[in-house]
Predict the 3D structure of the following.
Amino acid sequence: MSFMKRDINTIAIVRLSALGDIVNTALVLQFIHQHYPNAKIEWVTEALFAPLLQNHPLISKVHSINLKKLKKEKKLSLLKETISHLRSLGNFDIIMDMQGLLKSAIVARLLGKNTHGFDKNSSREALSSLFYKTNSFVPYEENIVKRNCFLVSDALGFEINDAMILNKKPIFPITNQYNFSKDKKNIAFVIGASWESKKYPKELVTKVCNELRENCFLIWGNEAEREEAAFIAEHSAFASLAPKLSLDALVSYISQMDLLIGNDTGPTHMAWAQNVPSITLLGPTTSRMIYETPKNIGIKSPSKVNILKIDKNDFSIKEIAPLTIVQKAKELLKNGI
């Protein structure tokens, strides 16, 4: 593979959602900075996720939009305001749509003409490719982190290889400090997920906590998850609820853990982002969604998954034995990696 270095001074990244995808996309910032140290990088995202990126040292500006509000209210004035805002952000040498959806492609095109994204055979929504000036072919089935890295490297003219990804620096800055006990290992559990079928049952999480016998902190993001966390804490003397955390505080909290165990969801991906050992539990999805390393592993349920047609009624995650998780957790904690 050959790359042609480009004359780039201003870069726009479009990645609107979701949390895990934004985490996996933010990896590319450090590689862009290595090759274009003087380039200004701006990021367009949904307002909900802007706080995660706001203080990133490699991002010049974060621009937030509220497409969910726009979709809900359907106000012409709000649409005109959003379009005007995007068109006013300035001139960019390149605009990279990292999402590959029709909505993100339109956002990218409103920023300017120099757009780059996935081609029609690589995107979740093939029509998105019509809005790009240039594009890249990356099989949709490819690992999501590698897809992001190839799109950027192909657009900007440099290589990102596995060694670079494995040796990455922590992706996000740490803004808060927490005082955790040193008498036992500190393990975070991410118990929530966007779909019920991606969630490891609370009764089985309880068994894992009781078998590990370490300090287990249950991360929750809404009232329903808080109630599940309370159930686990009630049935395990080793489990307690994490505090309610903002996105930047969540990064800092996870960064100071010895291990994180969680479902295939944004906060779980933060452990990999921060170089913290992790175990991702996979039911209706596959390890395509994570970048496995010696200290960041996935445990997949027995079900077969068609990544092009995810079955949200695949509840096979409950078939992952608690003792399998405990064994892997102990290995990671023992190795201290």
